[in-house]
Design brief:
The chain is an all-alpha fold and 128 residues long. Helix 2 runs antiparallel to helix 4 and helix 2 packs across helix 5 (73-88). Helices cover 57% and strands 0% of the residues. The termini are far apart. It is built from six helices and no strands. The longest helix has 22 residues, at 3-24.
Length: 128
């Protein structure tokens, strides 16, 4: 590969890294970030896909962390969008199981049955 092409690739990779860092670490933002939401709820995959009868302790802990970090309507809508993206890539997700995680984990908040088509802008104070 030519030196010029290597420099172009290096600049492109650097820009992509800066963009990713900017998205995942917005200064002054307390909104939940998608990487955090997905990390918190990844242990719930076995439950929401019907492979486990109850959410695991790790799933419940992640859901508790999400409930604590999503304080405003905007936070909740952001978290919903993250869940919606993650659900879109998973086969056999039962939306009713998504909404049952808080109850199963004894957490005082509620989640809607989020699907690929769910409109996260409808989330207001009634959820969480």
């Amino acid at each position: 590969m030519s030196t010029k092409r290597v420099k172009v690739v290096a600049v492109a990779v650097s820009l992509l890294m800066l963009i990713q860092v900017g998205w995942s670490q917005q200064e002054g933002s307390s909104q939940p970030q998608c990487n955090q939401v997905v990390q918190q709820l990844t242990p719930c995959v076995q439950y929401v896909t019907g492979r486990e009868p109850k959410p695991s302790d790790a799933c419940c802990n992640g859901a508790k962390q999400l409930a604590a970090s999503a304080k405003t309507t905007k936070d909740r809508q952001t978290a919903c969008s993250c869940i919606k993206q993650a659900v879109g890539g998973l086969p056999n997700v039962d939306p009713s199981r998504i909404s049952s995680v808080p109850k199963e984990c004894n957490i005082d908040f509620s989640l809607p049955p989020i699907t690929r088509d769910f409109d996260c802008s409808t989330i207001k104070a009634m959820y969480w």
